[in-house]
Amino acid sequence: xxxRTAASTAVGVIALALAGAVMGPQWDPVxxxxxxxxxxxxxxxxxxxxxxxxxxYEVETRIVDVALDGTVIQAQISSPVGLSGALxxxxxxxxxxTGEFSRAFRGQAHELASAGIVxxxxxxxxxxYSTRHRDYEAMAGDYARSVEVLRAxxxxxxxxxxxxxxxxxxxxxxxxxxxxxTLGFAALIAAPVVPPREQAAFAADAxxxxxxxxxxxxxAIPRAVGMDFPGGGFEYADFDVTPFxxxxxxxxxxxxxxxxxAMPTVQGAQQIIADLAxxxxxxxxxxxxxxxxxxxxxxxxVSADFVRDLSRWISGLPATATAxxxxxxxxxxxxxxxxxxxxxxxxxxxxxxxxxxIVSAGALVVGAGVWLVARVRRRGTGLAEGLSGxxxxxxxxxxxxxxxxxxxxxxxxxxxLDYEQNAWVVQGGWVAVRALGVGTVVVAAVLVNxxxxxxxxxxxxxxxxxxxxxxxxxxxxxxxxxxxTLAYWGVFQLGx
Length: 496
Hints:
two-stranded antiparallel sheet, single chain, Rossmann fold, 9-stranded mixed beta sheet, alpha/beta
């Protein structure tokens, strides 16, 4: 019996491993083989006299209304005190999430204003923005209204009003520059460049590598990111900013922190330069800031070098649009490319994936209920002796493994986002999940062998009556489907 169980378990695990391998895309990131080499360690733009230094002027702020289609938002304008004449201005475009001038871009807006540049931070419009639904082209139209308001302010040079987009905002700014050639300039900070789906997969890969997860976990990246998400929406996941960058004719400042693991920092700058070249635009300036994170912060504070460089670049335009060196700062490193994500072959619909789990779990519950009612009312279940134990142990094992896998994925996600490592969770948790899965297959093997023993015994019947048949059908099918689902997410993979 022990040999039969071991052999059946081996066959079951191998079959599940093969099924998991063929049901969806693997994760084979493409190495980046064309590094970007900085031309100077110094990020400084222009000489000491290039624009007023940050902190030269006191700053005053005022709140203005911006009328959008269907609503009105407020924006904060920060201006240098005592400086007259036609001044340059910049409108800030928010990254992902909510964005209010009371919290977003406070340091950048104040310090640029103290260097003689009028800044405007509008509140993000939220009635048309949610996790599931975002329209970057419509958002660009909303931010264009803020540009119009800033251009109309006294003391502003309308031709020198530009836009600053950070992270998600760097998908919106190129739409604005392509649609409005009169914009004076664009600053793309921590620009994702590739579509959101590709950027999400790239970030997940980088975060997980930093956390030290086992190689088998990476299979989940294309299968999770590549599918259509449950509940619909997320059309913006495939938004392509490239056509808009290829119509951008304004000077562009590109800024990245070399401590930003979420963005393709080398590929991003290369793509922006290449796209601008398609438009016949060679007005780019690329800067990398040592140790700065996604928001160009070092130890929680926006890099002073970054604000200095951006203020000089804006104040010095058009001369600084092609100032040397074109690419400078800390040497960036990017191991893999952000690439298009394949759609899972059979599980590309997130609603299908979710419904499979729900229906299978429901089948287990209903099957157990039928068995329990039959046992109470009829003092018998209709199952041959020795079958009930492994049948429900298999069901419990699949449920526990699914629960453990969900816990594990949530735990490593938290660790990854916090840039933390914990070998007990990362390595030990994965071993525990897989051990639960294999243990469930062992119990399933015991069940199959016992069914075979009953089948060949002419004096015994494995199942008697419809309650027993319903129980076996529901619990067996539900467990099998959940095991295959676990295989899809990599629990049983054997390096296949």
